[in-house]
Design brief:
Largest sheet: 5 strands, mixed
CATH architecture of the largest domain: Alpha/alpha barrel
Radius of gyration: 26 Å
Structural class: alpha+beta
Strand order of the largest sheet: 1-3-2-4-5
Number of strands: 23
Number of domains: 4
Strand content: 5-15%
CATH class of the largest domain: Mainly Alpha
Shape: globular
Number of helices: 27
Helix content: 40-55%
Length: 704
């Protein structure tokens, strides 16, 4: 076995990282493979490779079995820089294609469309090599069980690996079968979760000590973790913000605010066009991997909106407003659906595909564009050694607050704001004349739901009606195009087509989004829809033995393993979102089943929370709901919608908001409507204090 592993596992380096069908068809190509029939922009990018790529489907899997061929499964996504690199070096090469086409069934997978497939093979490569990323390249037996894998490979290493594995398969296939069997057991065990049989009790949960231990990994100078690269991790920061507020931890709050400030100052934030790149390659948030993902921007809009509720810091408002302008301008279609991502790469003047080419500037360009304002601009955005990147290019980064700049240059805040506006308009106009990054224009239900939530949080905070309008438009798009009459969801949408069943992430995030819509509209339909979706997940995703939800439905095809997603990552785990949904809905609907499930789910992951808190931050947030008072703020009366404004602009992490402007039979609202009065009830577990008539009075009751 040791010999096999040496042959099978190569040393690898992790590299993380739109083309429409019409555009592709309009050009004459030497090669065309079956991916031309797909809608995924990532798959379409490979439709004219000499490799005979096929999509992941039952026909492809059956072909491998019938022909008794190994499969090459290559997984990536449209905005992935190193995916493009490997395509150019290997998959566009005819000699590579000869080897792949002769001996393998080649399968391309868009990880964003098929997160279930991606997770299986990510886990496999993690087990084989200790690390994984994208592009993800795996060789499997004809039945899909993996035997070898890695991430990015140069051409010669790739060919060599293919030939070695094929030779083993021809000469001694049993070695691969035996290895696949062992690996399969490992994959099946990775995301399984045991029932916690200890006594269920959250009142003694050691939140403070967990956060204290976690804080050893904090970078107090630049924020985020004390390492590079740095990912923003919004759900981490949301929990730490809440913990800092509820436990009066000033040191922790200062860390959160430093992190938010430095991210907003850094090059990871697009100072010209708004919006955030996926992550920073360095420790000070300066040089990003330039792709822009919808899910990052959605969650960061929510986070900065909540931080503004507490701090009223103008910087946070600026970031939210500019990011939502970017979403509206670049990431939203006429139906109100949100696109998935913008590529990191774009064409240079020389016609070369280059990372960041669209976003960076050299000094001569900036002097030409900004003229007399260049001196002030260069101080503001560090057109100096601090802001220099490579090839004489600069990634804009801030170090000083607006107040320091106005003092240094003896100008008013109003003057500076006008200059900033002019700079951004000029630079955006200049930049828009460049070749633009490719757009991944597919729509994913889960990511759209996160964006609904982002818009709602921004509306609550800033009371800009257009934000609620966009949220409602997208929600209606999902209802009309992605939601079926029986409560089932589709995962993807493009060009009028939805081809993939929804995953737990789609249900969990959409339920969360619909609950948030109720909190700002008081329209009960959002609670009804949330319940409908919740009941569907019980029927099709729920595991009775451990009270957790599978990532895939019982209606989906069987993969190597059927696992549970419960560890929080850049996006919170679908099970942690679902557990919070059940907790909140149990209060809205007085549903004991929902509450019991939520508490059992939390109890199951409790042992792991204490050992790895950054991977369980959304679970930690739920823990606070059980550990401390959780309030129900109920507004009932004809003026309910007008009185909700003040409540929604306040930071209320330990409360839900419900209400109605008319008589209602919903448990929280029943028997509370009085003609010609609008009353606000502050309750804990349906035990309410005397009602008040003003939001300011209700807010005072939350901590009494």
């Amino acid at each position: 076995m040791r010999v096999i592993l040496i042959v099978l596992i190569l040393s690898i380096t992790i590299f993380s990282c739109n083309s429409s069908k019409k555009d592709i068809l309009d050009i004459q190509h030497q090669y065309t493979n079956e991916l031309i029939n797909e809608t995924s922009p990532y798959l379409l990018q490979h439709a004219h490779n000499p490799v005979n790529w096929r999509a992941w489907n039952s026909e492809t899997l059956q072909k491998a079995k019938e022909e008794k061929k190994l499969m090459v499964i290559s997984i990536g996504y449209s905005a992935c820089h190193w995916c493009h690199v490997m395509e150019k070096e290997s998959f566009e090469d005819s000699t590579v294609a000869v080897t792949m086409n002769k001996h393998f069934v080649a399968v391309k997978v868009d990880r964003e469309e098929r997160p279930d497939v991606d997770q299986i093979y990510i886990n496999a490569v993690q087990l084989m090599t200790g690390s994984a990323g994208w592009p993800l390249n795996v060789i499997t037996l004809p039945d899909g069980r993996p035997v070898w894998g890695g991430t990015y490979f140069k051409k010669d290493a790739w060919i060599n690996s293919l030939e070695k594995i094929e030779k083993i398969y021809q000469e001694n296939p049993q070695k691969l079968i035996d290895y696949a069997t062992q690996l399969e057991e490992g994959i099946k065990s990775m995301d399984l979760i045991s029932v916690n049989t200890n006594e269920l009790n959250f009142t003694n949960f050691p939140s403070d000590s967990i956060v204290e231990k976690w804080s050893d990994s904090f970078d107090y100078k630049y924020g985020g973790p004390n390492r590079s690269p740095k990912f923003m991790m919004p759900n981490n920061l949301e929990y730490l913000l809440r913990h800092g507020i509820q436990y009066n931890n000033e040191k922790l709050l200062n860390y959160v605010y430093v992190t938010l400030d430095q991210i907003a100052y850094g090059g990871v934030y697009d100072h010209v066009g708004g919006g955030f790149a996926r992550y920073s390659t360095d420790s000070r948030w300066h040089v990003p991997h330039f792709e822009k993902m919808l899910y990052d921007n959605a969650q960061l809009v929510s986070l900065y909106s909540k931080a503004y509720q507490i701090t009223k810091k103008p910087l946070y408002k600026e970031v939210v407003l500019e990011t939502l302008e970017f979403i509206k301008r670049k990431m939203t279609n006429s139906e109100g659906a949100f696109y998935s991502s913008l590529d990191a790469d774009s064409l240079t003047k020389e016609g070369e595909l280059e990372e960041g080419a669209y976003y960076v500037f050299n000094k001569n360009e900036l002097k030409l564009i900004l003229e007399d304002d260049f001196s002030l601009f260069s101080e503001y955005y560090n057109i100096n050694s601090y802001g220099k990147w490579e090839k004489e290019n600069y990634v804009l980064i801030r170090r000083k607050s607006d107040i320091l700049i106005t003092d240094e240059f003896s100008i008013s805040q109003i003057e500076l704001e006008q200059k900033k506006k002019n700079w951004k308009n000029k630079l955006r106009a200049y930049r828009d004349n460049r070749e633009k990054p490719r757009l991944d224009d597919k729509t994913l239900t889960s990511w759209n739901a996160l964006m609904i939530k982002g818009y709602v949080e921004a509306f609550k905070t800033f009371q800009i009606q257009a934000y609620l309008t966009e949220a409602l438009k997208n929600a209606q798009f999902i209802i009309e195009n992605q939601l079926q009459s029986n409560g089932a969801l589709n995962h993807n949408y493009k060009d009028g087509q939805s081809s993939i069943n929804g995953y737990l992430e789609d249900y969990a995030t959409l339920i969360d989004a619909f609950i948030s819509l109720h909190e700002v509209t008081l329209d009960e339909k959002w609670i009804r829809l949330s319940k409908k979706l919740t009941d569907y997940t019980y029927e099709n995703f729920y595991n009775q033995e451990n009270s957790m939800f599978y990532f895939t439905s019982i209606k989906d095809e069987k993969l190597v393993a059927r696992n549970f997603e419960y560890r929080d990552n850049v996006i919170a785990a679908s099970n942690s979102i679902m557990a919070k949904n059940l907790f909140i809905l149990s209060h809205h609907l007085d549903n004991e089943k929902y509450l019991n499930t939520s508490s059992k789910m939390l109890h199951n992951v409790r042992p792991e929370i204490e050992t790895y808190p950054s991977g369980y931050s959304n679970w930690l947030d739920l823990t606070e709901n059980y550990k401390n008072k959780y309030y129900e703020i109920v507004i009932v009366g004809k003026d309910a919608n007008s009185k909700i404004k003040e409540l929604n602009t306040s930071y209320l992490p330990n409360a839900l908001v419900a209400g109605s402007s008319k008589e209602s039979t919903k448990p929280l609202l029943k028997y509370r409507y009085i003609d010609d009065e609008t009353l606000i009830y502050v309750c804990v577990n349906n035990s309410c204090k005397l009602p008040v008539s003003e939001a300011s009075e209700a807010l005072k009751l939350l901590n009494n």
